[in-house]
Amino acid sequence: MIRPLxxxxxxxxxxxxxxxxxxxxxxxxxxxxxxxxLPIIKPPAFIPGxxxxxxxxxxxxxxxxxxxxxxxxxxxxxxxxxxxxxxxxIETLAEGGVTRFMAIYLEHDATKVGPVRSTRIYFDHxxxxxxxxxxxVGGNDDAQRQLWLLPKVFNIDENRWEISxxxxxTPLFWRSQDRVAPHNMxxxxxxxxxxxxxxxxxxxxxxxYLLHKQPAPLKARGHATVISIAFANPLAPTPVSxxxxxxxxxxxxxNYLRYMGGTPHIDANTHQPLRPSNIVVMQTGAATxxxxxxxxxxxIQIPTIGRGTAWCFRDGTLKRGTWHQPNPNAPLxxxxxxxxxxxxxxxxxxxxxxxxxxRITWTVR
Length: 365
Description:
Elements: H1 12-20, E1 32-33, E2 36-37, E3 46-48, E4 55-57, H2 58-61, E5 66-71, E6 88-95, E7 98-105, H3 121-130, E8 133-136, H4 141-147, E9 154-157, E10 173-175, E11 185-187, H5 189-198, E12 226-230, E13 245-250, E14 255-260, E15 263-264, E16 278-283, E17 288-289, E18 300-301, E19 306-314, E20 317-325, E21 333-336, E22 349-354, E23 359-363
Parallel strand pairs: 5-8, 6-22, 8-9, 16-22
Antiparallel strand pairs: 1-2, 3-4, 5-7, 6-7, 10-11, 12-13, 12-23, 13-14, 14-15, 16-19, 17-18, 19-20, 20-21
């Protein structure tokens, strides 16, 4: 039986119950057996983060996942703000060979996240797999309709309030003055969670997480791994160099320096390059034109419901396997070739979703 996510993976409940009993967050337990009284048991203040596997305050680890759609249009949307704080980032094509991100926040927050852009059906499906709060600015026609059919998603759409390109109509989002619209929409994870709290929608969901392991010792790590992805418009398959992705493994730090368009990918909040601990490449079926997208030119459909090949990189090594998401409300799961759930190193994970029209290459040694 496949169990929840490698963005959902096997129940966080089991991990938490072993650490703190079956009590709700913040409670204390005492009991008596015969004449003997057991001491009060207080749940641990810190537990492993469900998505990044690092020691996390209990109240943060037990929150609902928050997903924000970020654009990557070159050069107007770069550098993005808030990607470094995301626990997991999913990257794939949006249209015309341009990629887009779904940044998933749980263990950490960011005061500024963006630029925020519109959603697509496959992003909706991943948000539903997480039972997530989803923040975005509109979406293709079919993606907007799909959200009505996904009760597991709490939908925060800036378009619900927007008055004009100069007035968002809500304090949840704002437009910066240093970029041109529409590449200047920002939000804050604090603001989004406060809004979800007010709507009683920030409840914990215990089946959204990655399984983690101890990092490999230095002698067991790879020496020089490089992963390259040449994203291409599947409707006119010519790679666009601005969206070329490369990861270069650092053996001593046990992470992967991310490059975008030939240069290190910098977070505007930290002014530092992104260095995830794990990389997953999901190979999907062929992407096709989306006849129900609406007015967005060159919109595509990417078949992300079902299963396919996955390559998981951590410790400078490669583990081959498969990805599975049987329906829009089911977890996305990563399994190795023996059918066991893949485990990851603590830290940030990037998931690259790549149709066959885009080229994937790597060297592992």
